[in-house]
């Protein structure tokens, strides 16, 4: 969710990330075909969809200059805790597994307990690519690899894509509802092999 539109020429998209986009095909002649491809895919998972430019037409729509005027602003100085989470592969008695802070998912275990309304900074570190998704909260990216966030990190998110070896800091306020929720890697095979943890808001 953005306060104002952001122009991109490229937009990386990881599993569970969502963007509302307006694509401008005005520079392409009729008959052109534009393919949306999964650069990490192969075979049937590579080509996602195609757009065919059929004719020239005038677009009377316009993108508003302001999208949302009441996005929350959280400051690092408000944070009551800074937590670190390592998303890494490892070995178990049954073979390979995917861990959060060295632990496989246990549905009966509470991994993190936070107070309703608390502002916290969470620092995620990845061994390979991990799109980290938090349930029941949204966050802002503070830093990526110790530097400023990238353009596609703007706004409120519920998933952040971590590249191999990367550390990303996010800030959030747990202002939803009390209860138990998940946070996990959104690569399906990673979460299926244990890369999830339980968050309890009290």
UniProtKB/TrEMBL annotation:
PROSITE patterns: MULTICOPPER_OXIDASE2. GO terms for molecular function: copper ion binding; oxidoreductase activity. It comes from the Bacteria. Keywords: Cell cycle, Cell division, Metal-binding. Residues 95-199 form the Plastocyanin-like domain. One of its GO terms (biological process) is cell division. SUPFAM superfamilies: Cupredoxins (SSF49503). InterPro entries: Cu-oxidase_C, Cu-oxidase_fam, Cu_oxidase_Cu_BS, Cupredoxin. The keyword Transcription regulation does not apply. Pfam families: Cu-oxidase_2. PANTHER family: BILIRUBIN OXIDASE, CUPREDOXIN SUPERFAMILY PROTEIN. This is Cell division protein SufI.
